[in-house]
Amino acid sequence: MKSTLKKLGYNRVHKQMNDVFLKYTAKVVFLVIITFSINLFFSGHYTPGGGFVGGLLAAGAIILLLLAYDLKTLNRMIRIDNKRMITAGLAACLIVPILLMFFGNPFFTHQHMYLQLPVFGEVPLHTAVLFDVGVYIIVAATTLLIITLLASEQFMSDSEGADRE
Amino acid sequence: MTLIHFAILLPVIAAAGIGILYRYYKKIHLGWFVLPIPTVITIYLFTLMPAVSNNQVVHETLDFMPRVGMNFDVYIDGLSLLFAILISGIGALVVLYSIGYLSQKEKLGNFYVYLLIFMTAMLGVVLNDNVLMLYLFWELTSISSFLLIAYWFNRERSIYGAQKSLLITMFGGFLMLGGFIALGQITDTYSIRGMMAQIPAVQESALAPLAIILILIGAFTKSAQFPFYIWLPDAMEAPTPVSAYLHSATMVKAGLYLVARFTPLFAFAELWVWSIIAAGLVTLVWAAFNAIKQDDLKAVLAFSTVSQLGLIMSLLGIGALAVQTGAAEQVFTIATVAAVFHLINHATFKGALFMIIGIVDHETGTRSLKKLGGLVTIMPISFTMTLIASLSMAGIPPFNGFLSKEMFLEAMFAIGQADFSVLADAAVLFPLLAIIGSIFTFIYSIMLIRGIFLGKKMPATPKTPKEAPALMLIAPAFLTLLVVVFGLFPNVLSGSIIDPAAMSILNISEPLNTEIHHWHGWDSPALWATVAIIAIGTLMYIFRDAWRPVYRLGSDAFTLNHLYDQGLIYSRLGAEKITDGYMSGYIRSYLIYIFGAFVIFSLITLINTDISFDWGTTAPIALPDLLIVLIILAAVAAILITRSRMVSIIMFSTIGFALSLLFVFFRSVDLALTQLAVEAITTALFLLAFFHLPKRSGNAEPRGFKLNNLMISAAVGIIATVIGLAAYSNRLFDSISQFYIDNVYDLAAGGNMVNVILVDFRSLDTLFETLVFAIAGLGVFVLLKLRVNKEGENKFEEHP
Amino acid sequence: MEILIIIVAGIMIGASVYLMLSKSLIRIIIGTGILSHGILLMLLTMGGLKRGGIPVLDDSVQQYSDPLPQAMLLTVIVITFALTAYMLVIAIRVYRELGTDNVEELKGVPREDD
């Protein structure tokens, strides 16, 4: 992939995107959004938020990086295969209800309990959160997969279009 | 989750591990890792046997979907235990045999994963009390059988056979599901036990005949009864271990299991009894008759399997008379015992025969009877085993096939004592058919021995024949040993396995105390029938050349296979014709069909129902709301007018962001958040996509075209508005939301109702929703990365 | 308010149908986007608007607005995104293979060997 990019005039685009200010801000904002996304995710059970919004925001944060840098740098910064992540997310979504079945509950009957911790006090533990983790991962990974694919296509079709004309 | 649930699911769980293992470790033949699984299950099932023999049952429930009555109810009585032991026991032998049969070069991972999935599916079928779960596992057996038949998927015949088996068994399975649902309607339960408790209700119900027919079609397709048997000979394209396992010993007996299982419920119906007996006998004779003309050894065995299945099926039918009549009970009970006994015997001798023919194929390279002969000196062990197994199949004493065959004949003679309402004169027909079928069985059994091992030695085999390695001989040798042991000491089985199974078929609790004898005295009609079968069979075999031309009488155009093929071709042609009729190829026409139908049907409904518009108190309109609504309308108008794609995408985003503001006003914060995030990403998506799309689409749209579109869209818009207003003002029932509001804390320990509904109350929906989302992502991947090269092959680009 | 929103939703649905019937692929995609927006609004309105507080448990709140449409619509929003992305990519692929984005020109011609 990387070699194809170079072949297809990747350097030219790279120069255009050399904006220090944007890059620096993007890094900071990325951290803010990711933190917010995780916060939204964990508070989702009690206040607005949850896996869908959290996942979308996480994807949005990474897309911001993609816009500020480029796909190659992004791939170097975050070495995650989105397709594997989709699989992992689906597995998380499926394993939770199946495991629940093994404990004598019908399929998809979530369980919850409260845990007394010394510092935090009463902390609720909930199997639905595990399911939500799967949702979060799937949403984030799929969105990223689509966007990065299109972004990588960008350079190729430029040259292909040139070939056609 | 109990041990027995785990035992059923163990193969499928192991399949996941086996698949991964095979990917990384190929030094040792994969079969050695698979072998312990069926072995352990067999041993575990044998530990249940003492309890089951004492007329106890094992009943364990695991809730799966209690609301729809679909639970993983394991119910083990004599019948299910017998089948389960057959499945796991033969499974272990087949796996052992396959280690020798399949070389390391084959795709072993696929083979064993499919085989293990099949094992779970089959155990699930026979150990389940819930018919819906039974159906689930039933179809899983069809699917795994399909995959296994198509194991050598480069061969055209394999694909054809796999498709045929899938079409026919799935067709039957689907009808069977209909039968189960009809039964569920009658009895209001999906548990077989629960249905048994309501036999009177079933007897009175008008739906019962329908249920009987549908369930019988399911059983007949699976057990390859006439006229559905045609898939089984074609299924022989599978590797021989699969044929021995699925298509002789286990899967094809699922239909027998089903019939046996439902016998107590349906035995009252004449329809049930006579259709089973008739189908069984016709299958027996027809398939045995056809077996003789085959040249391929596996085809001979396939037809022989079909005919033996017919034999057992007819016995089960006669056994049902025992439940029905009550009178002359002893006579018909023996039929059930014979059915169970022959089921076991068939698994032993036919399993052994399949494995030996696999060996012959493996060592000589051919399965054609014409090319084989005189192997007796080269393969003495295989010959001995074939001799024993074939003679048992032919019904020659002292092997086990003789005993069950004699019981079968006795049962057929006893049929005259049944209470015939319409068929009084036909009573003589049944033993006659049975004897004819047995004569053919005798002939092809002899043909097998003579054709492969005796006679002239054929030099033209593709490989130089030699005796098989010991590894491949163990499994058939074990089965042959069982043939002899069961033949000499049949009463080993009768108390421990046969009686409990027969008792569950007959639904009685008092012990049967069956004793199986070799000798019934000179006055036994079955004895003379056996003598006649052997005598006529020998004569016919000797003079076979004289009557063989009989096979050339029928034309190919009248065979069932021809019917199937033609049906397939014509249904495709018909579908093509219908499709071509309305599929113009223009997306616009399809959209016009859809929207036109929407408008027309909605109009008809709206005219025929008097709707009133009464919307009671509505929320007040605040100034910000109005402003946003105006923005949305302006943006929509701009999109309609503009021809610049940049303007339209900006306006489209405007609508999205405006909507998210509206959501805030409407107190739906979650929606607003999601809409905001999605809108941002969608905009980025459109901008990225614009790199690849033409800057300006210069597609002129003539005035008439536009006017047409305008009329359709105006009609749709107005109808949608009217429907919306009508739906809003007429509430048919209360909202179910109150349940979620009330229980959000108690049941789900959450505060945010929207999220709790998503991940807890309705998490199954969410699961599928995420699945759709993931599939869309993968679809995008495929669309962008899949290239068709010049040769027309699909090829993925190199992975980044 | 509800009536106004329903009418707006109806207008959006009508406009989306107009866009979907046009010849340009990109207008069709935008049309489906607007269609789903319109239906979103329509369905949300069915539960009543501005009735009570946001559906997050709070002791001081007596009445909540209907959470069920919101939950279902949340998934609608996400699926719409997937749908839009998928259709865009189809459009891209179509344009790359065939060199046109005019749906009238896309009608497949049966190949000789079929």
Description:
The complex is a heterotrimer of chains A (165), B (800) and C (114). Chain A has 165 residues and is mainly α. Helix content of chain A is 73%, strand content 7%. Chain A has one domain (2-164). Chain B has five domains: 1-266, no CATH class; 267-543; 584-613 and 703-732, no CATH class; 622-693, no CATH class; 735-800, no CATH class. Chain B contains 32 helices and four strands. Chain B has helices at residues 3-24, 31-34, 36-53, 78-101, 108-126, 131-149, 156-187, 192-196, 199-204, 208-222, 231-234, 240-249, 254-266, 270-293, 297-325, 329-364, 380-394, 400-414, 429-453, 470-488, 491-506, 525-542, 544-547, 560-582, 587-608, 623-641, 645-665, 669-690, 703-729, 737-743, 753-761, 763-785; strands at 58-65, 70-76, 786-788, 794-796. Chain B has a two-stranded antiparallel ribbon. A two-stranded antiparallel ribbon of chain B has the order 3-4. In chain B, a hairpin with a 5-residue loop joins strand 3 (786-788) and strand 4 (794-796). In chain B, helix 1 runs antiparallel to helix 3, helix 16 runs antiparallel to helix 17 (380-394) and helix 26 (623-641) runs antiparallel to helix 27 (645-665). Chain C has one domain: Helix Hairpins (Orthogonal Bundle), CATH 1.10.287.3510. In chain C, helix 1 (2-20) packs antiparallel against helix 2 (25-46) and helix 2 packs antiparallel against helix 3 (67-98). The mean pLDDT of chain C is 84. Chains in contact: A-B, A-C, B-C. Chain A binds chain C through residues 46-48, 52, 56, 139, 142-143, 146, 149-150, 153, 157, 160, 164, and chain C through 54, 56-57, 74-75, 78, 81-82, 85, 88-89, 92, 96, 99. Chain B: Residues 630-695 form the MrpA C-terminal/MbhD domain.
What distinguishing features does this structure have?
heterotrimer; A: 165 residues; mainly alpha; two-stranded antiparallel ribbon; 73% helix; flat; disordered N terminus; B: 800 residues; 5 domains; two-stranded antiparallel sheet; 32 helices; 71% helix; elongated; NUOK/Mnh_C1-like (chain C); transmembrane helix (chain C); CPA3_antiporter_subunitC (chain C); transmembrane (chain C)
